[in-house]
């Protein structure tokens, strides 16, 4: 199909899937249970961090994380004591466990008290073309306090070859226009034009079938190639096509 036909096809799929019905089976439902900006972004960040594997399991364990944070994540993170972290014992989602959750809680406290919050960090390091440098810098800030070495694997670094799927998904949630009721659009300091489509097995396979991606690995180089293709379709809002690629792959078996 021509580029115009491809754009029309994908735009229709975006409209089909970028609706509130999408939320019911997606981990984005977790931050949608909150109304305060800081609660939304912390819930979104923690949920995105464990967003690999079975989606029902992700939702179940993300819900459990919120319960452990008294369903008030910002307040808990700001005011927790060391003893409060004992409640995390036994928590596990695949390779993310109580040790990781304890450190994430401590690091987020540092980010909100010393770095103007999650949006403040990403905004500070955002450059002109995309957010991959900002993600790499964010990882450095996140682990600037004393940390267990095992936990560093849970934040990806695009400059070391990762497609950083989960952080790119988190950024889409925070930055993209929230008028359809799916994404939030609560970060006004970053342009949606800088977002990258979260690249995983589903979006990658569909992108290859549609000729948007030729590289076989789902890595940073593949993400750069996909970025270029999607920005050619919509330079102002390229990550909206995540709905189309993901929907085609997961719901339609494209």
List keywords for this structure.
254 residues; mainly alpha; 11 helices; 2 strands; 51% helix
Please characterize this protein's 3D structure:
The protein has 254 residues and is mainly alpha-helical. Helices cover 51% and strands 2% of the residues. It contains 11 helices and 2 strands. It has a two-stranded antiparallel sheet. The radius of gyration is 18 Å and the shape is globular. The relative contact order is 0.13.
How would you summarize this macromolecular structure in one to three sentences?
This protein has 254 residues and is mostly helical. The chain is built from 11 helices and 2 strands, in the order ααααββααααααα. It has helices at 3-17, 37-49, 55-68, 73-79, 98-114, 117-125, 132-142, 165-175, 201-209, 220-233, 241-250; strands at residues 92-93, 96-97.
Summarize the topology.
Blueprint lengths: L2 H15 L19 H13 L5 H14 L4 H7 L12 E2 L2 E2 H17 L2 H9 L6 H11 L22 H11 L25 H9 L10 H14 L7 H10 L4
Antiparallel strand pairs: 1-2
Helix pairs in contact: 1-11, 2-8, 6-7, 9-11
SSE series: HHHHEEHHHHHHH
Query: Can you list the strand order of the major beta sheet?
Result: 1-2
Q: Poorly predicted ranges (pLDDT <50, ≥5 residues)?
A: none
Which word captures the global form? globular
Q: What class do helices, strands and sheet pairing give? A: mainly alpha
Largest sheet: 2 strands, antiparallel
Number of strands: 2
């Amino acid at each position: 199909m021509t580029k115009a036909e491809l754009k029309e096809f994908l735009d229709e799929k975006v409209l089909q899937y970028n609706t509130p019905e999408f939320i019911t089976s997606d981990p984005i439902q977790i931050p949608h249970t909150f109304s305060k900006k800081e609660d939304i972004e912390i819930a979104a960040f923690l949920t995105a961090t464990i967003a690999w594997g079975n989606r029902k399991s992700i939702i179940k364990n993300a819900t459990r994380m919120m319960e452990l944070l008294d369903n008030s994540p910002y307040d808990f993170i700001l005011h927790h004591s060391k003893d409060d972290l004992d409640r995390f014992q036994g928590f596990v989602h695949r390779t993310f466990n109580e040790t990781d959750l304890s450190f994430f809680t401590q690091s987020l406290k540092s980010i909100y008290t010393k770095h103007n919050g999650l949006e403040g960090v990403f905004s500070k390091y955002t450059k002109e073309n995309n957010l991959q440098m900002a993600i790499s810098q964010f990882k450095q800030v996140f682990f600037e306090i004393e940390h267990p070495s095992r936990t560093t694997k849970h934040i990806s670094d695009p400059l070391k070859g990762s497609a950083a799927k989960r952080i790119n998904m988190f950024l889409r949630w925070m930055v993209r226009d929230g008028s359809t009721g799916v994404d939030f659009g609560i970060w006004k300091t970053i342009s949606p034009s800088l977002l990258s489509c979260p690249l995983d097995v589903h979006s990658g396979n569909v992108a290859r079938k549609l000729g948007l991606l030729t590289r076989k690995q789902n890595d940073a180089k593949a993400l750069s190639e996909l970025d270029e293709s999607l920005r050619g379709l919509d330079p102002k809002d390229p990550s909206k096509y995540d709905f189309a690629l993901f929907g085609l792959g997961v719901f339609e078996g494209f």
